[in-house]
């Protein structure tokens, strides 16, 4: 009996050119031992630059392989079957050799030696899922496999900050603006929810960028969940809010509004961070532009979404821009003076952040020859005494008083615009919710 193997380059094995791949018949008594057999199955790297080179899987090689395989099959049909106790048949070894000639280029020899014979059926995994069943499920991955538990895990930081009661000023503002827009209740609920989601998600990012320790009187979300998970949760909610907009009657217009105002929000935030990180004091005009983008962006988004769902044709944009300025400048002022604010956010946190708030900007420009406040900001102080000294310095330059007067003027302008809108829509100004909201937010 003989064994058919594919000739490989091996020392002392025949008188065949290294560039050739031919089949030779070995007497049974010359069958290589296991270690040599493995070595013979290792593919010899051919040099394609040699003229006599025949591609490994080319026609010439395939013809030889097919002829020899037919010969092996014919011989196998004439040979008696072997029992389980006998060594592997020559036919089996020949088949292994033929199949290994195409597989050996991708697998190291040592890995081939560990593979079970081709006649052995793969054993199923003993785990809860077999390997094949996992392969069968690949095409359905991501389709209906996401669970509520996983969703809650991703939303954790967002749900954490949302569970802390806020002012809900934006929700109240949307309700007041609807006296003029008369948006259907279902659409109004979607808009209010989207604005709430975007606001809370933006606070998660804002607290990280400002390195804030407190938010709404308790540890900031990134202090509890970590920075990476908090960032991911905030970004995730941005897209959840975008998905909510698809429920509106005019989703295409809503998408355009969303994109424009979210870009504006990030432009404003980017400038605010740039001034802080480079210790560059902006002008008041630059600051008001930044606030109009950063803080006013979500206010405008709410109004513009309401306009896409309304048939009234009311233009509230001048009013909403003024309201955005009032909201941010009052926040700047309270950060330096309101005891209740410091309890929820920390003592004079804007100074620790090195932030150029409205009173800080005025004070620096009011005493450009004295760099004391700029020097304090550069240190990003944490000591209460240092920050209190900075506040006293701003008071001495008249910056706190200037801020109060500026807010008062903005509030008067906002109320005048609200009355004009009432006249335009035929509403009674005595019951105008916006007027009372402006009075409340401008109280400092």
TrEMBL record:
Range of residues in the leader sequence: none
Entries under CDD domains matching the protein: Trans_IPPS_HT (cd00685)
Keyword entries, A-Z: Magnesium, Metal-binding, Transferase
Pfam families: polyprenyl_synt (PF00348)
Compositionally skewed regions (Basic and acidic residues) per UniProt: 53-64
Residue ranges of the region described as Disordered: 49-131
GO BP annotations listed: alcohol biosynthetic process; isoprenoid biosynthetic process; mycotoxin biosynthetic process
Bias type Polar residues, positions: 79-89
GO molecular function annotations of the record: metal ion binding; prenyltransferase activity
Keyword Cytoplasm (UniProt): no
Residue stretches of biased makeup (Low complexity): 114-130
InterPro entries: Isoprenoid_synthase_dom_sf, Polyprenyl_synt, Polyprenyl_synt_CS
Family indicated by similarity: Belongs to the FPP/GGPP synthase family.
Protein name: Geranylgeranyl pyrophosphate synthase-like protein
Naturally occurring in which organism (per UniProt): Hapsidospora chrysogenum (strain ATCC 11550 / CBS 779.69 / DSM 880 / IAM 14645 / JCM 23072 / IMI 49137) (Acremonium chrysogenum)
Taxonomic placement: Eukaryota, Fungi, Dikarya, Ascomycota, Pezizomycotina
